[in-house]
Every structure is written in structure tokens, then in C-alpha cells.
Amino acid sequence: MSKKGKINYAKYGYLFCIPFTLAWLIFSLYPTLYTAIIGFTDLHGVNASAIHFKSDIFENYKWVLHSPTFRTAFKNTFVIWVSNFIPQIALALFLAAFFTSPRVRLPFIGGFKVLFYMPNIITASTVAILFAALFGYPMGPVNDLLTRFHIIEKPVNWLVSKAVARNIVIFIQTWMWYGYTMIIMISGILGISPDIFEAADIDGANPWQVFWKITVPSIKTILLFSLVTSLIGGLTMFDIPQLFINNGGPDNATITTSVFIYAQAFKGGYWYNRASAASMIMFIIILALSGVMFFFLRDKDEAEMRKANKKAMKELKLAQKAKGEASND
Fold this sequence. Notes:
By secondary structure, the protein is mainly α.
């Protein structure tokens, strides 16, 4: 509160928040609520206008959960995410520890960071089209190089193989995002007090011990952030699987839940209600998994301290209450 006779500028802060709040309400909250609602309706077709709630409001959800294509898409999504996240986080941690180590005297170190981060700047659609061209058949750079060096006798149609197509998608996801994760890790490591590393160095700790005993525990919050954001991005991946090979081929090997949702909403029968139901199912799954990660990766010491403080405050209140009652008597 401002003193009498002075201007209170705090109210202007709320005015500056209005544009963002309106944009969020119109372009984020409203579409989310509308999507949640039409999942219980019969909305489908290009010219659909009237919306009616189904007699069984969970019919669309049941259809999605019993759809073999959705099950395949969910399995592919989870496998691709796990398979690209593990090498991504491992490579990012290694590079972050390497670049922040005081023992490393590497020239042009800033340039290397830029080069590693650069794939993340390229749009996903561009990368997908690029790799589709690289593995093109019968003419493509990969086939041309392999035949030129007599590694293969004739061009191979790589993208008809389910394993090859899926592994290429996994590689693209890892290649695009490890640089971003590395930058996040570097920022977390630089936030650790140098005194801790100096003390470990004086005690004779080797780099491996410093990494596992000091660096990793100190950036647990950063790891949690990377894990949750990777989970959200991984379970909603769309650009690479959709543009690399259309329709999630070959034989649905690269179809993801987002590609499935897109196909339901904008191809064939334009089943907006089924697409909405699938979207909300993924929303609930992501929310639940994020909650589990927050629970298991929380700072247990801080949680115990908060619990102890809460218990102490409760005991203090009970003691004050008992003292007040005794004085009244």
C-alpha cells in the first residue's frame, strides 16, 4: 500500500498483464476446454455444425482405447521417446561436465557449444525432409555413398524397413535435442558453488567421483525439468514422424499418438470427437507421469524439513493453546 498523497503504481502492473491474459484465455484455455467438451459429442465431418452429446458420453474414449492403431501409436511414441531421451540426456550430461570442467583447456569452446546447439535451431519439418532425401530410393546420398564404396551392391529402399525407419526417427530426435539439453545442464552446473568443487579437489576426488557425488545431485532440479519437458515433447511429437514418412509408415512403425490424432481429425471422416478424446487421454497420461516424476525426484531433504517445520508449528500452537487455557483457569 502506498502512503497517503503518493501515487500507487502497483495497479499498472495488472494493466500490463491484460494482453497476455487475454491471449492465453482466447488461444490456450478456450481451445483446451472446447477440445475436452467435443470429446463427449458426435462432432465429425467437414460440414459438421450441430453438436450433440452422445447417450454414452465416454463412447469416443472407449473407441480410442480399443483402437489397435492408437495402441500401436502409443507404444511407438513411448518407445521412440525413451530410446532418444536416454542417449540424449547421457550425451548432454557428458558434454556439460566436459565444457564446465576446470581441467579442460579447449580453444574455441564457445564455438563448439554453438555447433552442438545448432541442430535445435533448424525447424523439425526441414530436418524431416532432409533425412527423407538422404535415405531416398533409388537415388539418395546414403545409397550413393554406400554403393560407391562397395559396401552394398545396389541401392536399398531403407524406408520400407520398420526397424530402420523407427531408428532414424530416434536418431533425429536425439540429434536435434541433445544440444538444447546440454545448454540447460551447463547452466545448472555453473550455478553450483565453486567452493564445493575446490573442496572436493583438495580431498583428492577424481573427476568421476566429482561428477556422480557432486554435479548430478546438485542439478537434480535441472534434471527433473529436462525429464518433464522431454516427456511432454516426446509424447506429443508430430513433425518428424509425420513429414519423414507420411501416414506413420512403414506399417505404422513410426506413427505416434499426435499423428494418429491428426489423421482422425483431418483425414478420412474428420472425426473431431475421436481426435479430441485421444488428445485428452494423452493429456491425462502426461499429467499423471509428470506428477509421478515430481514425486520421485523431489528434494526429499527439503520435504522432510518442511514436514518438520509444520509439525513444530503445530506443536507450538497446541502449547500456546494449552497455556492460554491454563491461564484462564
